[in-house]
Amino acid sequence: MVIALSSPLIVGVYQDSTLIESFESVEKTSDALPVLLEKILHRYKIDTIYYARGPGSFMAIKVAYIFLKSISIVKGIDLLGTDGFNFNKFMPIKAHGSFYFMKENGKISTIKLDKPEKEYKFKLPKLLDRSIFSKENEPLYILPAI
């Protein structure tokens, strides 16, 4: 499971849907993700990569998708995606400046907030709910109006 929507980058390894190991890095996604996945691929047999496909940092999402899609193709590993709200208790996700992504009634939009009432950091679930993921894995780019 990869969450590369903001800092830190979070990667988790699951066995039978249970989190068995996790990694975090505050380095750029382009620097940290290859190192972490190389370590994981040497330690574990991975049959599916799950990732949060957005919204969040445009560049982090783009880098994560290209890297994960490449690994998926080269290694023959399924790549499944879902939106990042599943990993921050559906709280606002920082977009740019005072803009935040919100999800209400299944729709993601950007709103301007001086300061959200509560921001919740992304967290890997202890149990992975595979039903929230789909083969729709293209990046979820939502660019806020600036």
Characterise this structure:
The protein has 146 residues and is an alpha/beta fold. It has a domain at 2-87 and 122-132: Nucleotidyltransferase, domain 5. It is 23% helix and 29% strand. The chain is built from 2 helices and 8 strands. The protein has helices spanning 29-43, 58-75, and strands spanning 2-3, 9-15, 18-25, 48-52, 78-82, 93-96, 99-104, 107-112. The strands form 2 sheets. A 5-stranded mixed sheet has the order 3-2-1-4-5, with helices on one face. α2 links the parallel β4 (48-52) and β5 (78-82). α1 (29-43) packs parallel to α2. The N and C termini lie far apart (31 Å). The mean pLDDT is 93.
Provide a brief overview of the structure.
This protein is α/β, with parallel strands linked by helices and 146 residues long. The protein has two helices and eight strands. The protein has a domain at 2-87 and 122-132: ATPase, nucleotide binding domain (Nucleotidyltransferase, domain 5, 2-Layer Sandwich).
